[in-house]
């Protein structure tokens, strides 16, 4: 078991922590277990980060496993790497769901789609890539197919990779029930990511009386909170932008106005009272820390709450267990 070193300088501390985390992620065992054992639902944060190209927080992506199905929500930078760290073949995702079109949620999509088609163990998709999202999703799939037409044509001719495996089954969906298979349901709902960022969805996933809600990118929204009322797990996006940074760089203004701060997210948690609340798309800007995040949230919400991290897992059954990756045995 690796132990994090204790250091005094905050900068050195964060650099070493990042390096230590990278080592721990590589060194920790990941044993493939495609089907769930004791838990009814399993949620793994693949990427808890933002557009920041950070080594310890990859782009936003969340894997939900239930009833033998693997459902993937958003595809930020590095989603393919995190999936394969879990020994989940990229071609083994049952359906893919997009919340909105910001690039920190789609940047990993071409990689996942193209690499998942390749024949080695990490790929192996032989059926169309099911992609479900707001209006514009099918156009995105058509655009990707056009952009990568040369690679697709070469691999079909040269490697004889099956055409069905690189085809998209892309569906533009309105809010409501968007997935129902063998007792697993997914409901899309409109969140509030600002007037200019529409459409933008969150998702509620249910199976055998248990429910997980992903806020998507949103400000405080009573609609989102209502969706999460009494959920087992409520994952909410959050961002902290220190006032000095906001003043120094006007580019942060739109981000600040489009996303929940810790008190806003905590407000949604207080409304919904889930069994467990977690921040899953974590924007720590400037010198903001996880302690700042929790401190601000705790002023509003006193229920069970964790700050998500890459490859943090939640096993949902009679209870909701939090399993950091170092301890994860799948
Ligand atoms: Zn966004
Ligand atoms: Zn985002």
Task: Please provide a written account of the structure.
There is one protein chain. This protein is α/β, with parallel strands linked by helices. It has a single domain (35-325), classed as Metallo-beta-lactamase, Chain A, CATH 3.60.15.10. It is built from 12 helices and 15 strands. The strands form 2 sheets. Strands 6-5-4-3-2-1-14-15 form an 8-stranded mixed sheet. Helix 11 packs across helix 12 (290-298). The longest helix is centred in the N-terminal third of the chain and has 18 residues, at 10-27. Mean pLDDT is 89; it is low at 1-35. The site of one zinc ion has 4 residues, from loops. Residues 100, 102, 193, 217 line the site of one zinc ion.
Relevant terms:
330 residues; alpha/beta; Metallo-beta-lactamase, Chain A; 8-stranded mixed β-sheet; 7-stranded mixed β-sheet; 12 helices; globular; disordered N terminus; binds zinc ion
Instruction: Report the order of strands and helices.
Output: HEEEHEHHEHHHEEEEEHEHHHEHEEE
Indicate the overall shape: globular
Strand % is 25-35%
- Which strand order do you get reading across the main beta sheet? 6-5-4-3-2-1-14-15
Largest sheet: 8 strands, mixed
What is the topological layout?
Layout (H helix, E strand, L loop, with lengths): L9 H18 L13 E7 L13 E6 L2 E5 L5 H7 L9 E3 L5 H4 L2 H7 L13 E5 L3 H11 L1 H10 L4 H4 L1 E5 L3 E6 L2 E7 L10 E7 L2 E5 L7 H6 L5 E8 L2 H6 L3 H7 L3 H11 L3 E9 L5 H9 L6 E3 L5 E4 L3 E4 L7
Parallel strand pairs: 3-4, 4-5, 5-6, 10-11, 11-12, 12-13
Antiparallel strand pairs: 1-2, 1-14, 2-3, 7-8, 8-9, 9-10, 14-15
Helix pairs in contact: 11-12
This protein binds zinc ion (ZN) (2 copies).
């Amino acid at each position: 078991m690796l132990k994090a070193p204790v250091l005094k300088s905050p900068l050195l501390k964060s650099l070493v922590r990042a390096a230590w985390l990278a080592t721990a992620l590589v060194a920790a065992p990941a044993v493939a277990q495609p089907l769930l054992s004791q838990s009814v639902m399993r949620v793994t944060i693949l990427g808890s980060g933002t557009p920041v190209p950070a080594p310890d927080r990859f782009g936003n992506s969340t894997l939900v496993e239930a009833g033998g199905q693997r459902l993937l929500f958003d595809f930020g930078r590095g989603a393919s790497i995190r999936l394969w760290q879990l020994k989940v073949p990229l071609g083994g995702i049952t359906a893919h769901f997009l919340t909105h079109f910001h690039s920190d949620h789609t940047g990993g999509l071409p990689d996942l789609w193209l690499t998942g088609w390749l024949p080695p163990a990490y790929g192996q998709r032989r059926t169309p890539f099911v992609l479900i999202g707001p209006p514009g999703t099918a156009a995105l799939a058509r655009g990707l197919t056009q952009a990568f037409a040369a690679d697709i044509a070469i691999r079909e001719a040269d490697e004889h990779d099956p055409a069905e495996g690189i085809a998209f089954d892309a569906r533009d969906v309105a809010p409501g029930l968007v997935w129902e298979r063998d007792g697993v349901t997914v409901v899309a709902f409109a969140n509030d990511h600002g007037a200019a960022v529409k459409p933008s969805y969150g998702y509620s996933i249910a199976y055998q009386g248990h429910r997980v809600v992903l806020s998507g990118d949103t400000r405080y929204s009573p609609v989102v909170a209502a969706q999460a009322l009494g959920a087992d797990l409520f994952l909410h996006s959050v961002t902290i932008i220190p006032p000095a940074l906001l003043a120094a760089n006007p580019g942060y203004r739109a981000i600040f106005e489009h996303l929940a701060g810790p008190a806003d997210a905590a407000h949604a948690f207080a409304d919904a009272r889930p069994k467990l609340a977690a921040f899953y798309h974590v924007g720590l800007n400037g010198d903001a820390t996880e302690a700042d995040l929790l401190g601000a949230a705790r002023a509003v919400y006193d229920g069970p709450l964790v700050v998500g991290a890459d490859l943090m897992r939640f096993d949902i059954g009679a209870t909701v267990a939090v399993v950091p990756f170092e301890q994860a045995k799948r």
